[in-house]
Specification:
263 residues, mainly alpha, two-stranded antiparallel sheet, two-stranded antiparallel ribbon, 56% helix, 6% strand
Length: 263
């Protein structure tokens, strides 16, 4: 037997879903629900407590509300697209036929397996190889892996140009939604910076005890801190992905490159 062992249990290498599969799927939406909850609260705190109750100038109030909804719309659209854009799966022509799979799993040596994979992939646009010089092959999906394609254990399939699986969007960041993911980070950063900058004046008034009494002023206090905290986190994350785009890399590919080169 060579490098690859035949998957046990199910024909075609498919993994049987665990009994708690539905519960796990629901659990994965918790980070998304958390983000949506933060956005909903920030909408109330900014629109009602800041713009309606705290700002007295009508023109300033209108401008703040209009600009806020522009940033919010861009942010929510890109977030929605990142979450609900289908994962880019590997086309069927990359799947190895059953007869070749049997030969592969019953090969007597690694070299024989290598020849089988090379023979099947000769007409496919593949340049990446394993550390042993063989064509990359996924035992679970039973397909030839395209360049930058990787198997996602969360999605349960091989994904085109996989960057990483992000729990905050409950989706793989990959070939089909990477543009929306980068836009999501950029618009989320602008959204947080806009809130932080426009609420700064009223944050200062809070410490000077110049805001009206009541719980509303605490909404403004937390609104400033939360927006500033998220903005600081997003600066580094957005900057890192801009770096990856400029260097034509992915998060996963960058990690693999560092492991291979040592830096």
């Amino acid at each position: 037997m060579g490098n690859y062992d035949k998957p046990n249990g199910n024909p075609g290498g498919r993994i049987k879903k665990p009994p708690c599969y539905t519960l796990m799927r629901i659990f994965k939406w918790i980070p998304v629900v958390f983000i949506i909850s933060i956005i909903a609260w920030s909408y109330y705190a900014y629109l009602v407590q800041l713009c309606i109750y705290s700002i007295t100038n009508i023109a300033e109030k209108i401008i703040f509300i209009i600009l806020y909804h522009i940033f919010l719309a861009l942010f929510l659209f890109s977030y929605w697209q990142t979450i609900f854009t289908n994962v880019g799966t590997v086309p069927l022509k990359w799947r190895i036929p059953g007869s070749e799979i049997e030969k592969l799993f019953h090969a007597e040596s690694q070299e024989q397996q290598k020849r089988i994979l090379e023979n099947f992939a000769r007409d496919l646009p593949v340049t990446n190889r394993t550390i042993h010089g063989s064509v990359r092959f996924c035992e679970k999906c039973q397909i030839i892996k395209p360049d930058r394609g990787h198997h996602c254990s969360v999605c349960g399939t091989c994904v085109l140009k996989m960057d990483h699986h992000c729990p905050w969007v409950n989706n793989c960041v990959n070939f089909t939604n990477y543009k929306f993911f980068v836009l999501f980070l950029g618009y989320a950063l602008l959204y947080c910076l806009y809130i932080a900058l426009t609420s700064l004046e009223f944050f200062i008034k809070f410490w000077k005890n110049e805001l009206t009494e009541g719980m509303g002023r605490f909404h403004i206090l937390f609104l400033f801190f939360v927006s500033l905290m998220f903005a600081i986190s997003l600066v580094s994350l957005f900057g890192y992905h801009i770096y990856l785009v400029l260097h034509n890399r992915t998060t996963l590919g960058n990690v693999i490159l560092k492991l291979k080169t040592g830096y």
